[in-house]
Amino acid sequence: MKTTIIKKLEEIEKANDITILFACESGSRGWEFPSPDSDYDVRFIYVRPLNYYLSVLDKDDQLRFPINEELDIYGWDIRKVLKLIRKSNTTPFEWLQSPIIYREKEKFRDDLWQLCQSYFYQKNNINHYLGIAHGALETIINDDEIKIKKLFYILRPLLSAKWCLEKGTIAPMTISPLLTLMPEKLQTIVKDLIDLKSTSAEGFIIKINAELKTYINEQFELCGNGAKDLPKESFDLEKLDIFFRNTISRYDN
């Protein structure tokens, strides 16, 4: 499948007159808990020639393609990515940490990741992750039954919020380091669930372990309360503008 994805990226690059700077896996495969029927969630960052940006008109800043049973692929213009980083959006933060890379221009990921450190807004990141977890919590039925996919859509964001609150840094994308925040007994339970998910359809319904459910509820409240008193932050544009101009100059043909 990797060969197919790389070929698709090359076709997209040529057809749209862009340079793909970075492409990665962003879904459950990148998070370290895929199911046998998980599709491939490929995300990429691209830049266009200089003249594209020299216009009085707003231009498209993303590329989307039809989703099939195996492949979900789309990309964002570097300008869009930098705008989101200014807002401390978690999506670019996660893409840049993906363990599965399909394309990468030399030093691009390292340089952009370093830039991200100056735009981490603790409160915003916590609330974002809690929002995702809350949405998945609402899919629980009969008090303790949930699709196994949705359980991990609670666990990973909740632990990401906890990481942001306790460590004050951008949360890891993968679940392994996030699990270190949990008591050892619960770590074992979640690891067993990861093994189960690896052999089960994403729609497989399970009963949530009572101790795990109590932990989820407690941490949701703790993170929510902890975020309330965090200070507001704002970020300037200078570093982002410099990175934007340098990137365009480097890859303008």
TrEMBL record:
This is Nucleotidyltransferase domain-containing protein. Keywords: Transferase. It comes from Pedobacter frigidisoli. PANTHER family: NUCLEOTIDYLTRANSFERASE. The keyword Transferase applies. InterPro entries: RlaP. GO terms for molecular function: transferase activity.
